[in-house]
């Protein structure tokens, strides 16, 4: 019988990377490394492989997402934001006219 991940078989290993500029940002950089390593393992295993497929990405955006101009509530800076069609724009942004 072939092995499965549930039987304790080693299946993937990755090293993450993330930049940091001062010691105060080190904990965030470590979390970024962990996220990056997990993403790389998922790619090795074919988990969520659609997320790297440009055809899938375009089809998903067309059906489920909107690109909306928003303004940061406190700074007033305008930015183009992707959001799901069924999710309202969240703080700290508001939709601009």
TrEMBL record:
GO cellular component, one term: mitochondrial chromosome
Keywords: DNA damage, DNA repair, DNA-binding, Mitochondrion, Mitochondrion nucleoid, Transit peptide
UniProt keyword Transit peptide present: yes
Cited Pfam families: Mgm101p (PF06420)
MF (Gene Ontology): single-stranded DNA binding
Swiss-Prot/TrEMBL GO biological process terms: interstrand cross-link repair; recombinational repair
Alphabetized InterPro entries for the sequence: Mgm101
Major localization class: mitochondrion
Lineage: superkingdom: Eukaryota
Compartments where found: Mitochondrion matrix, Mitochondrion nucleoid
PANTHER family recorded: MITOCHONDRIAL GENOME MAINTENANCE PROTEIN MGM101
Family, as annotated: Belongs to the MGM101 family.
Protein name: Mitochondrial genome maintenance protein MGM101
